[in-house]
Amino acid sequence: MGYLFFVKSPKIISHGPTIGTNTFWSKSGTLTDREVFMAYNINFISRGRATVWVGSDYVKLLSPFDPTNSGLERLASGTEHRWNSTGFELISGPQKRFTYSLSGRFGGYFAEGERYNLRSELGYRFQPYVAITLSSDYNDIRMPAPWNRVQFWLVGPRVDVTFRNNLFLTTFLQYNNQAQNVNLNTRLQWRYKPASDLFIVYTDNYLPENFSVKTRAVVLKFTYWWNP
């Protein structure tokens, strides 16, 4: 539920508050998950957006859960967890050659822990053929023993090339320190008729220490729109 104030401004088209909730129950009617948030949004004429928000979370675990996904001790099934957090989001207009997004989340986490998250994405389009994007995702999780403090990075550039209106090439490189993996993925897409495509995908996975190959694959995918 929200309310918008429309204003006469050379840069801002509207702004206003929003309040919402995501709530889940089990089949027996027991509350299992609830997120309640309040936000204030500013919508720019450029179609960009700025948002600040506060939220409150409740989770009742239905199965054992490792809150850091690092192979350490799991939280027991049936335990209840509550925390508060706040955050922001800033997104540029999509029609610009240079685009960006930045978001952050700061506050609580499972087992009375804390989580700090920052995400960013920078992009530039060399009209009309090439688009380059660099994205990053950083998580700093602080919890009691045995998890203690863990830090995760997910970083990667992406290049999209449009040779013509039916032939595309996408390549991205991604480093994931949680999985100790570097992934290279290249996809060639040929749209030989509407809604029908031929994909050739090449992927490599490396160890980040010495770039030794872990897995390597080539995948061929063919789709055909049957429209009698």
Question: What's the total helix number?
Answer: 0
> How would you spell out the order of helices and strands?
EEEEEEEEEEEEE
- The unreliable regions are none
Distance between the termini: 45 Å
**Sheet/helix structural class:** mainly beta
The number of E-state strands comes to 13
Query: Which of globular, elongated, flat, extended, rod-shaped describes the shape?
Result: globular
Biggest beta sheet summary: 13 strands, antiparallel
- Describe the strand arrangement of the main beta sheet, using strand numbers: 1-2-3-4-5-6-7-8-9-10-11-12-13
Mean pLDDT: 94
What do you see in this structure?
The chain is 0% helix and 67% strand. Strand 7 (113-126) and strand 8 (130-142) form a beta hairpin. With 228 residues, the chain is mainly beta. A 13-stranded antiparallel β-sheet has the order 1-2-3-4-5-6-7-8-9-10-11-12-13, with no helix packed on it. The protein is built from no helices and 13 strands. It has strands spanning 5-6, 12-25, 31-44, 49-60, 80-91, 98-109, 113-126, 130-142, 149-164, 167-176, 181-193, 196-206, 213-222.
